[in-house]
Amino acid sequence: MANLSGEPIWYELLTRDSAVTEPFYAAVLGWRFTDAGMDAGMDGGTGGPAAYRFIRHAEGEYDFVGGAMQLTPEMLAGGARPLWVTYFCVEDVDAAAARIAQRGGSVLMAPFDIEGAGRMAFVTDPQGIAFYVMRGLPDMDSPDIDSPDIESQVFAAEGSHDGRCGWNELITPDLDAALGFYREIFGYDTDERMSMGPEMGDYVFLKAGERTIGAAMAAMAGSAPCWRFYFRVPDIESARSAVEANGGSVIFGPEDVPGDEVIIMAHDPEGTIFGLLAPRKD
């Protein structure tokens, strides 16, 4: 397995109405949405099947950002809601799901197989924040899942501005408890911290091996606990204009961040939160 435990290997948009969200993200990030040729939700007890779509960032064979799925009426009635969610790599999905339950998390969808992709489970941490754990097929010919080639992975920590995710941020109501949980489940190194002042507390970096995949911070008043994802764009002002011109709203920023970059936080037309990340202009 090329990816380390805890590395993000897929991103997924759950939406009420793909006819609303697909044109929005296409305008903001230049994404293409293509049929995946499969159904999703069939084995998880969430009211499937639901048609699954690939999100692609460029022309090419391995140009994935992730996937998108329109929630069925049964899923919505069962409590599903629009959100962005990630899949974290694990060696053994069943063992990881069992550890998550033992450590106070929840298993929303017990481990199941998707033909041609691998094994996965939909879970939450002890604070109720949702994510998937996944193991791609060992013989999968799919660099987006198991390739060490950064140009074909869905998470691009640096050196790319083509719509892939560049940062993963955990917003949690109990920072110390969350850090202990993710250290145990994924083996994250959480020793590096940056103070954001007495009101906001520490910004704790999350490292899978030598690779920093993002950071965790305590939720501020009015902030919903979640995993937040920042997608890369070449210019933050152009992206901001596209958000506002296509039915979304900017709720924070532009704000300079370390690494000579700038971010905004936004809602898409369904109110789903996401971030954008770009190089800082002189």
Automatic annotation (TrEMBL):
Question: Looking at the record's lineage, which domain of life comes first?
Answer: Bacteria
Q: Kindly give the Pfam families that the UniProt entry links to this protein.
A: Glyoxalase (PF00903)
Instruction: Name the PROSITE patterns on file.
Output: VOC (PS51819)
Q: Which InterPro entries match?
A: Anthracycline_SecMetBiosynth, Glyas_Bleomycin-R_OHBP_Dase, Glyas_Fos-R_dOase_dom, VOC_core
Xref: SUPFAM superfamilies: Glyoxalase/Bleomycin resistance protein/Dihydroxybiphenyl dioxygenase (SSF54593)
User: Which positions fall inside the VOC domain?
Assistant: 7-136, 164-279
Q: What is the protein name for this chain? A: VOC domain-containing protein
